[in-house]
Recover the amino acids of this structure.
């Protein structure tokens, strides 16, 4: 064991390309903590190595370089699944396949470099470690401002284990959000480098974390008085079929058949609750708003339902822009009752960043909608529609002036294959349920469709690469959470407080050490 520890510390003392390689490997190791692996045991191994490497850097520039290389390993490994989307257009962009995740890492890594470099300016010790944890949290929160935002895989999401253990560990997100969990994760990951008192404090935090999560989970119970019975239609249409465009009629018929099956089942078990059926993102193979024949066919297939929510694309004649939309149709003639346009577009997928010297987005890309909204449909509890990617934005999924009773997320993860990507996306949905105290229904084209209650507890799921329907009653909303009321201000203030306390402690210890030097 002693020999292993010496070799471990020796890695932190490397310089030049050897240090860069060690940091890339440490970042890649850190990525194993995210869903679906959840190897949280690797977090202190990787993050402590980064902290030690910062300590042994010759200055802030070298420390920033080590943070940059750590992030290159973290995001290159953690986002490996991006290559699946490019493989679907490999004839045009085959050369981008090995560059997809490293390219994203190159864009995100400067934020990590900033946190590592600035922390190196703080005197060495536990104070510097606290500053590093705070800065890492703040720069991770800042990822919402990179292009249209890319806050994928915040470190706080590593605790979303399947089942009861994960339910317990994510409950504090109702107070401090996933960014607050990120701060705690960073602080606890550095525990091996603290002194005895610091390690005992970390143990106390962990005990309180588990106790608080258990208490919240056990004290809140689901009721089913107001929200509807949902039918989530999972057509399991490969993206290659959608791109080819020669199976549109067959795809439409498949969704109609599944809708009939699901609504029939839902009406039989709804016990007087209204029934809502939902198709995934862009499930309709055409322009739904311009198809006066298809809309009545859809509502007739869902006979007995109070409404159907269909994912489609829209072409706006007035401004000549494409929108990624959800449309609510009412029986009996499929009259559009509400339209929601996706507010957060996927960079490099749905819109083209201006700095790219080559074109990767089909056509002219899409135009974002104005903001999240709440739908008030006849006889149905208020619902907040969310399309795919925008569910990953903590604190930005609910209209703060019009809180819905439940959330409906439609998505198409077929682009990313049977990889970690769809699992990580599902984890984000679960975290939003806890943060807002709202149940969430998720309709996914190829899976994973699921229903979560306001505690983030999974009530039902339809797995990956399966065709079928998921029918389940939506539980009622929980009271508005602390995080739902104040949003990301809470983790922001916490991170700033930890950083300032760490800086003060580090400076105080440095002054004491200087004053204790012998006078000659």
């Amino acid at each position: 064991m002693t020999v292993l520890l010496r070799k471990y510390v020796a890695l932190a003392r490397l310089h030049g390309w050897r240090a860069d390689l060690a940091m890339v490997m440490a970042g890649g190791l850190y990525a194993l903590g995210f869903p679906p692996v959840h190897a949280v045991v690797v977090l202190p191994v990787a993050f402590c190595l980064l902290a030690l490497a910062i300590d042994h850097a010759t200055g802030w520039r070298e420390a920033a370089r080590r943070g940059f290389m750590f992030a290159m390993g973290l995001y290159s490994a953690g986002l490996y699944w991006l290559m699946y989307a490019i493989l679907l257009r490999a004839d045009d962009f085959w050369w981008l396949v090995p560059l997809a995740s490293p390219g994203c890492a190159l864009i995100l890594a400067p934020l990590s470099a900033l946190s590592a470099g600035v922390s190196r300016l703080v005197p060495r010790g536990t104070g510097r470690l606290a500053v590093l944890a705070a800065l890492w949290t703040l720069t991770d929160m800042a990822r919402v401002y990179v292009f249209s935002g890319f806050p994928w895989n915040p470190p706080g999401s590593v605790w979303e284990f399947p089942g009861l253990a994960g339910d317990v560990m994510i409950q504090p997100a109702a107070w401090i959000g996933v960014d607050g969990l990120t701060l705690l994760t960073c602080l606890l990951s550095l525990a091996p480098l603290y002194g005895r008192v610091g390690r005992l404090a970390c143990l106390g935090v962990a005990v309180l974390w588990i106790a608080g999560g258990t208490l919240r989970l056990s004290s809140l119970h689901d009721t089913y008085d107001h929200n509807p019975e949902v039918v989530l239609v999972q057509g399991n249409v490969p993206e290659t079929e959608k791109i080819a465009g020669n199976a549109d009629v067959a795809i439409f018929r498949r969704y109609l058949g599944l809708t009939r099956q699901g609504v029939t089942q839902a009406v039989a078990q709804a016990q007087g609750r209204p029934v809502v059926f939902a198709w995934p993102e862009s499930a309709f193979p055409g322009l739904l708003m311009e198809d006066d024949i298809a809309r009545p066919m859809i509502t007739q297939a869902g006979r007995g339902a109070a409404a159907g929510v269909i994912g489609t694309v829209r072409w706006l004649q007035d401004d000549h822009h494409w929108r990624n939309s959800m449309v609510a149709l009412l029986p009996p003639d499929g009259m559009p009752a509400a339209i929601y346009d996706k507010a957060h577009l996927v960079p490099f997928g749905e819109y083209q960043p201006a700095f790219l010297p080559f074109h990767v987005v089909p056509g002219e890309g899409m135009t974002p909608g104005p903001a999240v909204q709440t739908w008030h449909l006849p006889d149905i509890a208020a619902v907040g529609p969310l399309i795919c990617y925008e569910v990953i934005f903590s604190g930005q999924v609910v209209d703060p002036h019009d809180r819905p009773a439940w959330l409906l997320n439609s998505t198409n993860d077929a682009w990313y294959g049977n990889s970690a990507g769809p699992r990580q996306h599902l984890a984000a949905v679960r975290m939003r349920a806890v943060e807002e105290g709202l149940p969430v229904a998720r309709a996914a084209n190829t899976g994973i469709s699921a229903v979560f209650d306001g505690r983030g507890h999974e009530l039902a799921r339809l797995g990956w690469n399966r065709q079928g329907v998921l029918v389940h009653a939506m539980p009622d909303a929980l009271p508005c959470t602390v995080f739902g009321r104040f949003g990301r201000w809470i983790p922001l203030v916490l991170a700033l407080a930890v950083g300032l306390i760490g800086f003060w402690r580090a400076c105080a210890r440095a002054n004491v050490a200087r004053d204790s030097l012998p006078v000659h």
